[in-house]
């Protein structure tokens, strides 16, 4: 592909990403993969270059752009070499017209910038949400240890005891250590919130929103495979990924339980299980993970955010009813919005007598509201809110 044809391909992809964002369609990564599956003539360098253009344009635009072309013109406004590729050549974009509208540069849509600002995320904290994330792994202490594991590349040790950091793009999934379950890909922030959750060997732990089990696996390792860890979710496909991962990791302590939406509490009660610790790694807007999925800023609306808050309250109320007397709830979201963090905990405490917020003290991050906050700019992690709640004995 010529450089101009790559720009045109990026424009077409951005059109698809913008449409998908408006209609809750496929994520950008999937759209890019599908696009190139139908264009086998594009080589790996072309794919990398187009991908880079697409993500740079998404990062450059705040509001949802009117079109892919407007988004690319916004990026070209910051790069003279790029504007020269709007040259009308075959397969390239038409020349830019005098006064043609470019999308507005910015970090995120205005309403979200305001909500994040109200939660103290401004300036560098805000800008870094559009940065690029490194690749973090967790050494699986059920099978190996960071101090002596032999890996194909040497990573930078992180504050989490088994965490190592690599540059993004390192293909750790192809390493034997990955295939053999010695390492898991996991953002440092996720590793830290599992440390805050504080699962203890021998306990009964309920992971209410286990998904594919990233945090279940980390907790199983902290539990030294002793006790019981019930990993639940309402999404059969996601939860179905966990048993093979658990097997690879040697995490025999994990059992899965598929819940039916709206019957979660009934099903948990019928099973007779109650937790010393219940992790609520709740579905959320993911504002803390924009470094990995920058187009998520265009998918969120005030209505969708309100629905996330409602679901978080709903799940916290379930958690309270399946926690043993004297037990704990760990509430986690990968969001920096108060509506999905501090406010949920304040609301929980006002609804539930006999519960209190417990202190958190991690080596990274800072106290925020009745919990703890991690951010890309301050901590070099994805953005997270975590709070610990303790019930009366
Ligand atoms: C943030 S993700 C979990 C990520 C996972 N804990 C990990 O570490 O990889 C939130 C999960 O909550 C699940 N979920 C949504 N509504 C739920 C409900 N009512 N009950 C249980 N899980 C739910 C979603 O299917 C999704 O897998």
From TrEMBL:
Transmembrane segments: none annotated. S-adenosyl-L-methionine binds at residues 233, 281. One of its GO terms (molecular function) is RNA methyltransferase activity. GO terms for biological process: RNA methylation. Residues 102-392 form the SAM-dependent MTase RsmB/NOP-type domain. The keyword Membrane does not apply. Gene3D superfamilies: Vaccinia Virus protein VP39. Keywords: Methyltransferase, RNA-binding, S-adenosyl-L-methionine, Transferase. Pfam families: Methyltr_RsmB-F. InterPro entries: MeTrfase_RsmB-F_NOP2_cat (IPR049560), MeTrfase_RsmB-F_NOP2_dom (IPR001678), RCMT (IPR023267), SAM-dependent_MTases_sf (IPR029063). The active site is at residue 334. PANTHER family: NOP2 YEAST -RELATED NOL1/NOP2/FMU SUN DOMAIN-CONTAINING, RIBOSOMAL RNA SMALL SUBUNIT METHYLTRANSFERASE B-RELATED. Belongs to the class I-like SAM-binding methyltransferase superfamily. RsmB/NOP family. This is Sun protein. It comes from Altererythrobacter epoxidivorans. The lineage of its organism: Bacteria, Pseudomonadati, Pseudomonadota, Alphaproteobacteria, Sphingomonadales.
């Amino acid at each position: 592909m010529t450089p101009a044809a790559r720009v045109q391909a990026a424009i077409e992809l951005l059109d698809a990403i913008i449409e998908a964002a408006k209609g809750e369609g496929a994520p950008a990564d999937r759209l890019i993969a599908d696009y190139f599956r139908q264009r086998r003539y594009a080589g790996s360098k072309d794919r990398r270059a187009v991908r880079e253009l697409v993500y740079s344009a998404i990062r450059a635009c705040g509001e949802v752009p009117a079109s892919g072309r407007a988004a690319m013109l916004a990026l070209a406004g910051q790069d003279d070499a790029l504007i020269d590729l709007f040259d009308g050549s075959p397969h390239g974009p038409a020349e830019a017209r005098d006064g043609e509208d470019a999308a507005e540069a910015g970090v995120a849509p205005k309403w979200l910038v305001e909500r994040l600002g109200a939660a103290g995320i401004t300036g560098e904290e805000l800008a870094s949400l559009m940065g690029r994330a490194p690749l973090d792994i967790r050494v699986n202490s059920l099978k190996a240890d960071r101090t002596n594991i032999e890996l194909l590349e040497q990573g930078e040790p992180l504050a989490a005891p088994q965490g190592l950091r690599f540059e993004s793009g390192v293909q750790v999934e192809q390493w034997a250590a990955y295939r053999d379950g010695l390492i898991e890909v996991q953002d440092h922030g996720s590793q830290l919130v599992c440390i805050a959750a504080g699962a203890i060997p021998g306990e009964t732990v309920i992971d209410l929103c286990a998904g594919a089990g990233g945090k279940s696996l980390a907790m199983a390792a902290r539990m030294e495979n002793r006790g019981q860890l019930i990993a639940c979710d309402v999404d059969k496909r996601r939860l179905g990924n966990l048993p093979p991962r658990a097997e690879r990791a040697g995490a025999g302590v994990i059992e899965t339980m598929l819940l039916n939406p709206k019957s979660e509490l009934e099903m948990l009660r019928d099973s007779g299980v109650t937790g010393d610790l219940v992790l609520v790694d709740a579905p959320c807007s993911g504002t803390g993970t924009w470094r990995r999925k920058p187009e998520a800023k265009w998918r969120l609306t005030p209505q969708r955010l309100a629905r996330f808050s409602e679901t978080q309250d709903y799940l916290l109320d379930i958690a309270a009813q399946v926690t043993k007397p004297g037990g704990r709830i760990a509430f986690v979201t990968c969001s920096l919005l108060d509506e999905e963090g501090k406010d949920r905990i304040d609301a929980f405490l006002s609804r539930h007598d006999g519960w209190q917020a417990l202190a958190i003290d991690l080596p990274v991050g800072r106290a925020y509201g009745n919990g703890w906050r991690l951010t890309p700019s301050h901590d070099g992690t994805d953005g997270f809110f975590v709070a610990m709640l303790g019930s009366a004995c």
